[in-house]
Write a structure and sequence with these properties.
By secondary structure, this protein is an alpha+beta fold. It contains 17 helices and 30 strands. α2 crosses α14, α8 packs across α11 and α12 crosses α13. Bound molecules: glycyl-adenosine-5'-phosphate (GAP). Glycyl-adenosine-5'-phosphate binds next to β17, β20, β23 and α14.
């Protein structure tokens, strides 16, 4: 979970020492079959990012945006299979988080909103990364992304060119260990020429003046990782992408492409509440594009500038309201039953519940066993947040955040209440009736408990007593601003995690001793872009082709299928394995009744994982495949 202000939390990848171990495998989760099931002579190798990027392009999952024009940093396009994969993930999230629940509603808000929203949320003032600028090229790098480097620090007093051009300030750069001094000088000339543009003339003619060795460094983070130029002081850099809304395109028209989908949910909270006859606790979910001008987009789609989020804001009663209604707030303990929400749950059990729900979600798409959890420490947490857990996933480049689940108190709605002047309170009849039964002593005890909690705060300023008393006065009348639990996931990261987990490569030796490297994507059938490959055994047998077309037409109304009649059946299976198709249906001579009437209208159903084959009646196919794929 990205804090709104990065400056106070420089380390995005938490130290693994603080990470709790992976959850045990979910019961019923598909286990990866031994690759030996596919060949007698196999050697698997782990996915590397290079191999994943290459497969994604080759098979139409993900392409570089604007590739024919040299690309567009941090933006990616999803090809035919990537679009299907993403759609499946999006649909599963939407179904699981909204349609299958009685207590969550959906929202589809605009990407552009009134910029006052971003002021209220804190994004205008504090949604920033700390950045450092290269003194030779002005290239920026995120302060927490500078790899430690070893080498010798060289300094020049200035640089001149024969055409009169001058660089009259000191140049400091790192000669990396093992780098030849001449190639270093050539690099420095090229970099300052690039910075100066045409004015400096040819880089090789630039003269570097008064070279001195100033230091030998080990593990230094003061030099740009690519250029080697000395980095300036760290400065905040706002990540929101600015644009203009309106014809004049002046500063008055500035707004932002949303950096998260969450704020629209907060801004529309009252409308949803008033128009949907819901009661707290309930949630609002939204899926949509978000934009961040990431300083160093990297690791393929993992950190992009345009991406999609799937966010839920789940609104709950303040713990004090739960205590008034139920007499007490149920405490969380290890092994607590999280299966069914209870009226006496406070924020802590609700937070644990959502961590559990989200874990089950990931188990349901086949990546449950590559997750880890990072519970933010009190020092990590924003002053208003009560708890935040990052669900991390094992990617080829390391274990990184997939989703954050935060207990954010009433901060967001209160901010919008304050900035918009419109109340975000709800009225709770049950609370009002329960509060009416409390004695003055009981009420005072609640107030004193809250005052003690305020006094014990180590972050932010405690609420003054008068404000606490005013808040309780409203609460005893049944009014409060709901608190929120926010599970916030990235769709692009999820797709990448699913691809990385599914990727498997092994070597196969055929009957003639020829070795071949085989790639298989072991997607869970629910997320696989193509669910079934349909193959006539031979393409020159019209009766097989006609039957195969019939089966294809039957299945494709319900499942994304791929029809293929070219090449050997083994080659066709391999092609589908490479794009992660979990099932293959082959129409053969048995199907046409040539091997006896009992096999007529049956097909061979091949399972990608394990490679086993079974005969299934065409009329039973959908009944068998649909539950496996949904
Ligand atoms: N509303 C809370 C919020 O936006 P966040 O941790 O900044 O929190 C939530 O983002 C999720 O969005 C992350 O866990 C990640 O999956 C995804 N995400 C954030 N920045 C991203 C980026 N630059 N590229 C791809 N996904 C990103």
């Amino acid at each position: 979970m990205r804090p709104r202000v990065r400056a106070t939390f420089p380390c995005e990848t938490p130290a693994l020492a603080l990470v709790a171990g992976p959850l045990p495998h979910a019961s019923g989760q598909a286990t990866r079959p031994s690759p030996t099931a596919m060949s007698s002579d196999t050697k698997t190798s782990a996915a590397s990012m290079e191999k994943i990027v290459s497969l994604c392009k080759r098979r139409g999952f993900i392409y570089q945006s604007s590739e024919i024009y040299g690309g567009c940093g941090g933006i990616w396009d999803y090809g035919p299979l990537g679009a299907e994969l993403k759609r499946n993930l999006r649909d599963i999230w939407w179904r699981t988080m909204t349609r299958e629940r009685e207590d969550v509603l959906g929202l589809d808000a605009g990407i552009l909103m009134n910029p006052a929203i971003w002021k209220a949320s804190g994004h205008v003032d504090t949604f920033a990364d700390l950045m450092r600028e290269c003194s030779l090229t002005n290239k920026r790098v995120r302060a927490d992304h500078v790899e430690p480097q070893d080498g010798t620090v060289l300094r020049y007093s200035a640089a001149h060119a024969p055409n009169g051009w001058r660089w009259d300030r000191p140049i400091t750069a790192l000669l990396k260990n093992g780098e030849h001094i001449e190639s270093f000088r050539k690099r420095v000339r090229a970099l300052i020429a690039q910075n100066a543009g045409e004015a400096a003339g040819k880089p090789e003619e630039i003269e570097l003046l008064d070279e001195t060795k100033t230091d030998v460094v080990a593990g230094s983070v003061d030099f740009h990782p690519e250029t080697g130029g000395l980095l300036g002081e760290a400065r905040p850099f706002n990540l929101m992408l600015k644009t203009y809304l309106g014809p004049t395109a002046t500063e008055d028209d500035v707004t932002y492409l949303r950096p998260e989908t969450a704020q629209a949910i907060f801004a529309q909270f009252k409308n949803v509440f008033d128009s949907s006859r819901v009661k707290v606790p309930f949630g609002i979910g939204q899926i949509g594009k978000a934009f961040r001008n990431e300083v160093t987009p990297k690791n393929f789609t993992f950190r992009s500038r345009e991406f999609e989020q799937m966010e839920l804001e789940f609104f709950i009663k303040p713990d004090e309201a739960v205590e008034i209604i139920c007499g007490e707030v149920a405490p969380w303990h290890e092994g607590a039953d999280l299966s069914e929400p209870q009226p006496n749950w406070g924020w802590e059990l609700w937070h644990r519940y959502w961590v559990d729900q989200r874990t089950r979600f990931y188990q349901g798409i086949g990546i449950g066993n590559v997750l880890e959890y990072y519970w933010q420490t009190p020092e990590d947490l924003a002053h208003y947040a009560r708890a935040c857990v990052d669900i991390l996933c094992e990617f080829p480049f390391g274990t990184e955040e997939l989703e954050g689940i935060a207990a954010r108190g009433d901060f967001d709605l209160s901010q919008h209440q304050k900035h918009s002047g419109k109340t975000q309170e709800v009225f709770d009849e049950e609370l009002k009736n329960a509060a009416a039964k409390l004695s003055d002593e009981q009420k005072e005890a609640l107030i004193q408990k809250r005052l003690a909690a305020e006094a014990a705060k180590t972050k932010g300023s405690p609420l003054p007593e008068a404000d606490v008393r005013a808040w309780f006065e409203r609460l005893f009348k049944g009014n409060y601003v709901p608190h929120v639990i926010e599970p916030s996931a990235g769709l692009d990261r999820m797709a990448l995690a699913v691809i990385a987990k599914a990727y498997e490569e092994f070597e196969k030796t055929d009957d003639k001793g020829k070795k071949e490297t085989i790639t298989v994507l072991r997607f869970h059938p629910r997320v696989a872009p193509i669910k079934v490959g349909v193959f006539p055994l031979l393409k020159n047998k019209p009766e097989l082709v006609a039957k195969a077309r019939e089966v294809y037409a039957l299945l494709k109304k319900h499942l994304n299928c791929f029809y293929d009649e070219t090449a050997s059946i083994g080659r066709r299976y391999a092609r589908q394995d490479e794009v992660g198709t979990p099932f293959g249906v082959t129409i053969d001579f048995e199907t046409c009744g040539e091997k006896g009437p009992e096999l007529q209208d049956t097909v061979t159903l091949r399972h990608r994982d394990g490679g086993e084959q079974e005969r299934v009646k065409i009329s039973d196919l959908l009944g068998k495949l649909l539950p496996l794929c949904s």
